[in-house]
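FW: tagging you since you asked about this chain on Friday. Here's the raw sequence from the shared folder, copied in full. Didn't touch anything.
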Amino acid sequence: MTLSRRNFFKLTGLGAAAAATPGAFAQNAAPGNAGALGYPVQAIARLDALVVNQPVDFAYPDAASACQLLRLGHAVPGGIGPQQDIVAYSILCPHMGCPTSYESSSRRYKCGCHFSVFDPEMGGQQVIGQATQDLPRVLLELAEDGSIRAVGMVGLVYGRQSNVQFQEVSA
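HL: got it, structure written out here
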């Protein structure tokens, strides 16, 4: 079998990229292994302070990553809390990185730049628009003291090859 010049460069380029960025391709593949990925554990809000359909702003996994926490008032996929109704997402549109805004009347995230719309009640799924991916979801946990903490991400924040720096984890 002969390999065309174009396919040769595609294959060697992918191999070089993988070798140059150790762990970048696998870092976000295992959301259940958030600690090994180097995600920080960050307190966001208290359960008793949340108001249904009012977003809470925070940054995660670092100060340059705008996110929002929502209490939706009914159980949703990936929700935590007593009603399984609390979720959080990066608010940077995966299309071009414009900040989305939550519209409480429609219960959707909308991007004002290119009009993509995302549904937080369906895992941040894209409803319409230019984006080709869903909103990245922040993995949450509810602590015994009632605090809600961010512990990882599912999906890449816009403009990144990895959400966190690769860290060796000793056994």
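FW: The first strand starts at residue 42 and ends at 46.
HL: agreed, and The first helix runs from residue 5 to 20.
FW: great, closing this out.
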